[in-house]
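Re: weekly structure request thread

Next one in the queue (102 aa):
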Amino acid sequence: MARYKMVAFSNAVEGRDEDFNQWYDQQHIKDVLAIPGVVSAERFTCVGEGAQKYMAIYEVETDDLSAVMAELGKRPGTDVMPISDAVDFSSGSVGFWQPYAK
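Done, posted below.
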């Protein structure tokens, strides 16, 4: 089975970090981990100055990455993956990474 990293960079709406972090830790990570193929998650905070204050790295194990990506694309904003209004959508990004092979 192939292994990937899904890396999500994000910020909270100005003044809403507490709400953002509570939602992310108590709701969002569980919702993402419910997607078949997503097996673990770890969150980070930027040290110093950076465009995004928060980063999450998800471990993905699948032989069908497009199916995982499709599922991730259709769930946000639904009952199975509610999205907090504390998320600043203007500055976030998500990407998938695979091990580098020479």
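Residues 45 and 52 are 9 Å apart (CA to CA). The longest strand covers residues 2-10.
Next request, please.
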